[in-house]
Amino acid sequence: MKENMSSKLNAGLPDVPLPLALLMIILLSMCFANSYNGEFVFDDSEAIVNNEDVQNTPLWDIFKNDFWGTKLTNKQSHKSYRPLTILTFRLHFWLRKDLVAQDYHIINIILHTFVCILTLAVFNILLGRKQNNIAFFATALFAVHPIHTEAVSGIVGRAELLCALFMWISILCYHYSIYAKKLIHRWFSMCGCITFIAIAMLCKETGITVMGICCIYDLIIVNRILPSDLVVFKMKQSSYEEIKHIIQRKQKLLIRLFTLVASSLILIFSRFCIMGFRAPTFQPVDNPASFMNNIFLRMLNYSYIYCLNAWLLICPQWLCFDWSMGCIPLITIYDKRIIFVLLFWLILGTMFMYTFTSCENEYLRYSIIGLTMLIIPFLPASNIFFNVGFVLAERTLYIPSAGYCLLIVIGLQKLCNRVPVQCLLFLYTILMVLFFTKSWIRSEQWKTETTLFRSALHVCPLNAKVHYNIAKNAADIGNSTLAQYEYREALRLNPTYAQAMNNLGNLLKDQGKYEEAEILFKRAIELQEDFATAWMNLGIVLSALKKYKESENSYLTALSHRSKYPDCFYNLGVLYLEQKSYNKALKAWESATRQRKTHRRAWTNMILLLDDLGMREEALKVAHQALRFLPDDASIHFNIANILGKAGNFVEAEVHFKNAISKNPTDAMFYTNLGVLYHRWNRFREAEYMYKQALEIKPELNSARNNLRKLYSLKTAIK
User: Is the pLDDT of residue 230 over 50?
Assistant: First the structure.
């Protein structure tokens, strides 16, 4: 009977030699390669471009801040603690001395390839050597699954890639700890497993779930304990001697499981210590279902979200960068979507019944492993243990999809006994081609924010955040008309969207429509009292309306909600300057530069104000200090040159003017002022050349034209 079963297991999908399998997996994983030259898009801006942890904060601060660069102790922190992922971003910047998006994208693609190779190794271990065919076909499907696009083509998806990489390595270490012959090797491998679990956790919190996969693997595959065995044991009235005998026989298993579980509990406790035992706070727009008072409706909506996650794995046709704000309407009354919820739980329940009632069956063991890899890594995103800050996020399915792919191929292998293998291979090939094509097209959409945001309109036209991001992108490229339209559309779909109000207010502020902007900022603050950006922008508008006292209060309120806010200090300084409170202005700008060493406008304003106050030595001291942090800033060299020129230090002034011109050769004022320097220095030929250069760049520049006319008059008088 066993030989017959074995022959059936082997008569299925064809075996693929390891070298060919590796080559094919590497080639298939390149389905996301066309995103290699993409830009920083969506969350990349917050996590990398605007995150000081990636560029200039002390390295140790990375371990004190969350993924977005906010202090973990801050009440606005999302508590997402991924310092090792941030360190990889920091390494790019350290090597290049700049933020080059292409570098980040290329590394993501390479990491996905490594994860796919390790997936093959993990499947081979979990299934055993006799099932290399299942391992290969499941890994190939994993390599091209379109649900991975966000994790691979979105740079912040690096957290998923690194987490998966170290999770798979920890499984390999656990496997070696089981089969190592020497005790020291077993414990060394176990320590390695725990270490890599910790590393995976520091890349993304999901890493801790690999502990569950290792435990199930040890129970189901290594020790061949099926769920039905546990049911029988529970129902059977075992004597003390029988239990003692079982414990002695399974001593090594129990030691491994105890070590793994105890270590994981320590890691989880440490993680909670780091976040101060406080859960993150989210807005209702982030995850509306979590804010429903009716627990039945809340569970119903969670279940519907699980359905959608499952459907995206089965048919990843509709993919969206963000699924919040109306993308998935809440189920509040009778809704036909409840049918899908019931169907989902019926299928899942049937699968669980099958695992708990079936007896010895190799496919059963493999199916349990597939379910384990599908369900356990998804638990942190399920809202079961804690609320998450999203409705649905495709990147969270990167690791669970490995379990889904394994289940699909196990199903194909079982069908080989009833359907011709050639037919199944043909269907599998069609699926691979469709997935590869979809991944290629989708990764192309992730290259720019314009294509990414517009692609979402076809999937979630009622998502206010989609319209918000289209508006934000339009504003960045200078299309204020489209930006205003999309911001208003976002507010129509979600009238309480404070961020959209703030950004629309900014556009109106820039157009001089201060009264309309003031109304929007005040409404945004009513909705979100700790909205520091809206408080600052309100301060700018109130200052423009000459309401100086109210403006100052707004700035100070913004700083009370966000103490590290260099732009707010800068604008506060501008307000004090308008009120002729020069000392206060200088102190505010000093605070701005202290918090952000590269705040060019604050440095420039300090230099100009000190010079206007006749404090030239102090102005030069501040200017040279600014050059330490902004050595290539043309305006600082220009201001130093002007101060030195007025002081009669022509030689040094000339050096700084030329530095300014070399940094920015298209600014006509640089040539004009250098011309004035030469004019005063009696170097008339050089002065004439500089005036002409300025007029060539900007023909309407009257100062250069008048100075050139004076120069000609002076030269005529000398003759």
Answer: yes
